[in-house]
Amino acid sequence: MTRMLVAFATKGGTTQTIAERIGARLTEAGHQVTVVAVQDNPDPAAYEAVVVGSGVLNGSVYPAGGEWVIARQGHLLGRPVGVFAVCLSALSEDPEARAAALAYPDQLAAVLPEPPFASIVFPGTYDPGSRTWWERIVARLNNAPKGDFRDWDKVDAWARELADRLAVQR
Ligand SMILES: Cc1cc2nc3c(=O)[nH]c(=O)nc-3n(C[C@H](O)[C@H](O)[C@H](O)COP(=O)(O)O)c2cc1C
To answer: What domain of life does the native source organism fall in (predicted)?
Structure first.
């Protein structure tokens, strides 16, 4: 059993739902998991492994995600850390946009003290009705498609892979 922290940065709530799903799968696998928003400033010192994820706005993961990683670098050192990003460019037909999507988790990895032990991109959601007029304009500029594109099988598979790899490491 590994004590695990799943920290997330969200604006619309989708990354939280994915973080909670990862937490549920890790718990099922026998780990002791806490799922917390980075804004609550969780301390990785109390955990043996960490997962951190963020949504994406206008080509960048949310500043709160990177800021938490930077603030907690000292306690992330020496712990396995998995990173994930939740975005919509992964669904694009444009190869450049898809390549950009694959690189979003690297923005979190870049501020980790050591390379992440796992990294992945998940498709998210976009509901214009729950966004401000400014966000709707930015979303249109970024060609964000409307709808719920969460891929729960992909989330479950990644969480189970993390659980297996942590079991082997210990
Ligand atoms: C204003 C806005 C800008 C966005 N910009 C991007 C973007 O640049 N690239 C991308 O892949 N997805 C973009 N998205 C899609 C979001 O990353 C997606 O909606 C994600 O599910 C948001 O996660 P959250 O609900 O946890 O905040 C954007 C969405 C909005 C509303």
So the answer is: Bacteria
